[in-house]
Each structure stands twice: as structure tokens, then as C-alpha cells.
Amino acid sequence: MKELNEKGYFISYSYGEQLNAGSKAKNDCDQILRDSGYEPIKMKAPIGGIKKSLLSKIFWGFRLLIGYWKCLSMVPKNSILIVQHPAVGVEFLNIITRLFPNIKIVSLIHDLETLRDAGWITKSNKRAQIADYKFLPKSYKIICHNQVMMSYLEEQGIDRDKLVNLEVFDYLEDNDFSQLDRGQYNRRVIIAGNLSPKKSGYIYSISKMNVNFELFGINCDEDRIQKPCHYNGAYSPNELGKYLNSDFGLVWDGDSVATCSGATGNYTRYNNPHKASLYIASGLPLIVWREAAISEFVIKNNIGIVVDNINQIESKLDGITKSDYDLLKNNVIKMSEKVQKGYFLKKALCSMEE
After folding, report:
1. Where do the coiled-coil regions begin and end (predicted)?
2. Cα separation of 306 and 304, whole Å?
């Protein structure tokens, strides 16, 4: 534990538990920060967004301004305050931080919205621009997903010395699902996450091949799902691991089987998808797009395979022997032990503190 005058703090919201990875990633970071000796400062916020009515906007705007002022008033001068980025009501937090120039803001990036979705409506896009172009550069340190994201932020004018590499998101588990008996190897591939046609349109275009795709997640249009895909429902992130009775986990986004395309597909060039951490925690080797930022981590640690397109998966699996697969499996189980214990964020915090 740090001495009082060096103690770190973080803003903690009540995210709840949802059938997607959004709350899981942030709740896990909260827990790892607590375990690392950082003190939470509770903040009330409109989880799920502010309603469009003028009265609701005025009410929450005032409440967020006062709330953030109270939060920052509790932090001693020259102390570290970790903010999960983008913060709820970041436009109001950006205003309040000007009144507390002696607090060292550390931004822990979950998403860069200006990269992820350039097609937002004007108001939402303005919030994203405030988050990424005004609030983020003021940070004392920035914990980034990977080297690619670090290079991108450096190109945007942020000092390289501010940037810390997370490498991959942790995925805390109360139960270790990584060594469950998944049954006989049967060329099964998990696709987990938001299965809406807008975000994961490619799943509705997968043609027949000698591979079984097992789908888990919300917003699936079941009427459009065809073989070799099979929909298995949606589960809480904390229990999903025990249902992933497959051999690989696919990390892919966009509307095309030929490449990761569109806003969400192109975003994989920069981010670490949280579903990759789910697969690792569950002991599943990964299949990732060759041009995705996460591919470097997969290759370096030999925990999966890279492909240029979805149709290439069949031939790739044809070339994998049992000994090849066992090696990938053993490597990913070792990595699973790390992400389940918060190893990567703890390491990033140590690097940031040094």
C-alpha cells in the first residue's frame, strides 16, 4: 500500500452486470485497481446514457458537474487519479479538471471512440472528440491497448513518454474454465460478442465449410443464421466461459468475410478486443485477422493462428496437427493464468508508477 501522500485513486461507477463485455471489462479494472492499492471514489452517473429530453440533460449535466467537482476535491494535490476512458459525461469532467491542475490524471483507455465509429451523430461525435482530443492529451499518463495504439496517439501529438503498453486486457474469473474438458477436437470455432448485423455482419455471410461456428451473444438475427453457424444464446460474461465447448475463439468484426471492414472492422487495427481476453481466460487458442493489432500478441506468445479472411480458416485448421494444437492449448492456458489474476494491468500500473 502506498503512503498517504503518494496514494492513488480512481473514479468508480456502478456498471452493473450486462450480457456483453462492456461492464465486465470496467468492473475487472476496478477490482484490479483496488487490489493494487488504489482507493475508489464513488461517482453517481446515468449508466446507460442520458435521456434525450431537455429536462434530463439539464438535470444530469448539473449533477455530473457537481459530482466530478466533489470527486476531485477528495484527491490530495499531486496524487494520481485513474480514469477509465472515455469517462461517463467526459465533457463535464473535462471542465472540472481545469480547476484541479495539480492532480495527475491517468487515463486507462477502453475505447477511442473517434477511431471506432466516425459515423456517430454530431452530438455524440462531439463528446468523442472532447474525450480523445481534449481530455486525453491532458493526462499525466495514458495506459494504451498495444504498440499500434501507442504509435497512433504519438502521431496525434501525444508525448511517447506518457504512454504505457497494456498488451492485453485481463479477464478475472471466479472459476477457472481454462482447463475444462472440451471434448474431442472437432474443428469448432467460437464467435462471441455483439452479433448484430451492424457490428458482426460477416456471420450472416459465412458459407458452408468443414468448420463448426458456435455463436454466443446478444442481438443475433437467428432467422438469418445458416450452417455452418449455430446460435447458442447469450450469457453473463462471468459464466460464459463454461459454455465455450470449442477448439478456437474467433476475433473478427465488420460486415465482410474477406477482411475486417467498416468502422468496427477497421478499429481492430488499433484496439485489443475484450473477446480475445475472454477466449484466453477460457483456454481457447485464438483465430485473428492478420492486420489486427492483437495479432502481434498472438504470434509472439504462440497462442493462436492468423488469417487473411474467414474462408482461410478451413485450410489453416487442415494444416494443424494434434501436437500443433496441444502446443497452442498449453500456451494459452499459461496465458489464461495471467489474465485471470489481473497480471497485465498490474504490470502496466507498476510501469506507470516507475
Report:
1. none
2. 7
